[in-house]
Amino acid sequence: SMPPEILLKIFSYLDVLSLLSVGCVNKLFYDLANDNGIWLKIYSSCLQPKKTIWKMKSEQTEAVPLGCAALHDKKPGYWKKEYILKQTAAVKTRLMQLVKPLDPYTGLPFKNKEAMKVSGLSWIIVLKDKNGKEHVIEKANLSFKDTSVTILWYSTNWPCLDVVSTLKLFGVTPLFPDQSKPPKKNGPHRRSLIAEYHLANLTEGSVALGADKLVQLFSLNPGLLVGIWKGKNEIAFVMVSLHYHQLLERSILGSATVQYAPPPHKPVLDDIDPEYGLHGYSLHLDMHGRSCTYMCGTFKNLFCRKGDITNGYLRLTVVSLKDNRKHLPLAGTLGLSWETDVFKGNVKDCYVMNLTLLDEIGKPFWCFSAPVCMELSSKTSGLYDYMGHIYTTDYADSEGKVCIKLVWLEETKEYIMVSLVLYVSTKKVNNWYGTTY
């Protein structure tokens, strides 16, 4: 029953976050909270334009537009939109400055944590059941590595797996990040869709990665791991591995319904080099179990001979089975750790593989972070240097394949990597370099 003029006067004293919140109450409040006069004052005071729009009278600031066009010729909400766009652009500029310096070993920005802090970035998952109801899971544990971040969600209120249809992964950023304060839970924010997974028939339609006494793990590309309580059709936890390559863009620049699409790579032809696209690669490989790192190394000067191009793949041998000088020990017994509010566990013979393959100028060429498992290949190895069981790890996506062989040495209780081979899709190479193989 309060007159709109009085409400408008009250709204003029609110800060930006309160003004946006009060606009969500009802249509009248929304219309009043979009008032151009209020937002022009906020716009001019915070962003300090060169033109003086407001005249000072004694100790108070009164709105005195230089012309009617500043207010009356603009649609309601115009200056609100302009303010939000300017603030968003300022944050993106700051982020671009942070991600410019690159790590010479990984070819990725080495100030990712600072950039995430500046943006206020966090991640949530949204489970949608077959009736259309959405369940938002926010609480997450983060684990940062050289080239990726692993995010673990657990809750006591998971919906039954039988009724879950999809899982959506979102990056969430506050509309106006404040580095001095943690983002408000109910403050204005935006979502960026990173990936969408279909969980119907999860146990039949996905890869069974491993199990321990309490849970069984199922994997879906890209980088999703779902833990199911043994003997029950209920979710125990969800884990996602996100590679730093394009992580900020995917987490910030997409919309709530459409994923961010990076600009296509423009190939630069090289008519001088007859082996163009076949040499000069560098690999950074990180193998971890979320809580501990088993192997982290960089391999340079990788190449492929034309005779090694078969079945639509370029073969890059990183660690050769025949060259024992390059065989690498892994620290500890491989396993993937998980936890919930009550239980903790470790699934043996599983780990997260972070792969970053760079081209000859050090630009990320093929990157992924994904949970993988080891499988027993044979009882004992035929190598003279190592006598033990051989395990293999295989990974494949649309851009390539990874094949790893490990030998378990019972005497020293360690794994030795005796073979690491990458198979890169010729289609990927041809599109990247503008060549034909």
Automatic annotation (TrEMBL):
GO cellular component, one term: SCF ubiquitin ligase complex
Alphabetized Pfam families for the sequence: F-box-like
CDD domains: F-box_FBXO15 (cd22093)
SUPFAM superfamilies, alphabetized: F-box domain
InterPro entries: F-box-like_dom_sf, F-box_dom
Keyword Signal: yes
F-box domain: residues covered: 1-42
Signal peptide: 1-18
Keywords noted in UniProt: Signal
Keyword Protein biosynthesis carried by entry: no
Name this protein carries in UniProt: FBX15 protein
Species of provenance: Sclerurus mexicanus
